[in-house]
Amino acid sequence: MSVAELIEVTRRYGGNPDYVLAGGGNTSLKKDGVMYVKASGTTMGEIDESGFVKMDQKALDALWTVEYPEDKDEREERALEDLMKARLEGETSRPSVETLLHCFIPFKFVVHTHPALVNGMTCSKGGQGWAEKELGDRVLWIPVVNPGYILAKYVKDRVDERLASGQGFPDFIMLQNHGVFTGGNSIEEVDLKYQYLMGKLEESIRITPNMAEEPVDLAVAAVLKKAVQKAYGPEAGFEFKNIRQCKEWLQSKEAASPVFSALTPDHIVYMGHKPLWIPEGGEAELEQSLVEGVSAYEGEFGKKPKTILVQNRGILSCGVNAKEAFLSGILFRDAVKVAVLSENFGGVQFMPQDKIDFINTWEVEKYRAKKSI
Ligand SMILES: [Zn+2]
């Protein structure tokens, strides 16, 4: 029964784009010493039992007593090895990168999501102040910490401090520039907590994004498509859109600042850590700027851009294939929503640069990005 409930709750939150996009988010169930956790890169909305990895709860608990090396690469590698060893025999999938965050949460069900509404707050200058005022001691606020073992250990230490001071386990673990963890001993409890959180956030929203699509110039689109194929190869994925909210932003690189850096790890993984800006121009100039711009971007960051802002024309989402371009577009539009919603909480706050660099080079995230295309 519990596993069926886990599948139901995972599909329901995962199938709702207000909560989860692409391969983001994850859920777990603890039952009879076994933790079922979403496999890495699996899509929540379509999950079945095979999308979960069964982990030995005792082996996971034992991880907290291991002294890992100081060096961050060695540390993450060793912790990942131990995580893989904590799988029950016969399990072949890789558990979610956030498994370690699930295992010490005492609730039977844990549902972790990245809603735009929540991230409008977690990616804002006033987010922590809002959360602590509106949610009181039901929330534990976690600043940006590199993902992996180090994040889980940081959260666990904060939780332990809280418990030692006599406070209860938090209902909401709010990860700055990332999303929220909540849980319950029944699905009803999980739903009630999400309803409470979303209701509180909605009460504070005055400014909302205008996501209406506007037509693009088809001649320009054709030129850009040709240039994208030149830069990415014949299989390249291509999507060119115009959104009302971005009209003023596309006037200049400065005006586009609300979407010019990374909001959360998922935005980095799917739409790239930073868009490429292409100035307005005639057909030949546009093609040249795009091809040269992509090559300069690749020279600087070691990868091609997945989001290209074309001045006064539209937003180009691209990638090695159609799926990569499609996911990039979805995450870009989410970034637009998050950036606008953050205005209700004091304005947008991007991830710190060193944390962006870490994700860009993180092996686990590369695996996840590859798995979903
Ligand atoms: Zn997450």
UniProtKB/TrEMBL annotation:
This is Class II aldolase. GO terms for cellular component: cytosol. PANTHER family: 3-OXO-TETRONATE 4-PHOSPHATE DECARBOXYLASE-RELATED (PTHR22789:SF0), FUCULOSE PHOSPHATE ALDOLASE (PTHR22789). Residues 5-205 form the Class II aldolase/adducin N-terminal domain. GO terms for biological process: pentose catabolic process. GO terms for molecular function: aldehyde-lyase activity; metal ion binding. InterPro entries: Aldolase_class_II_sugar_metab, Aldolase_II/adducin_N, Aldolase_II/adducin_N_sf. It comes from the Bacteria. Keywords: Lyase, Metal-binding. The keyword rRNA-binding does not apply.
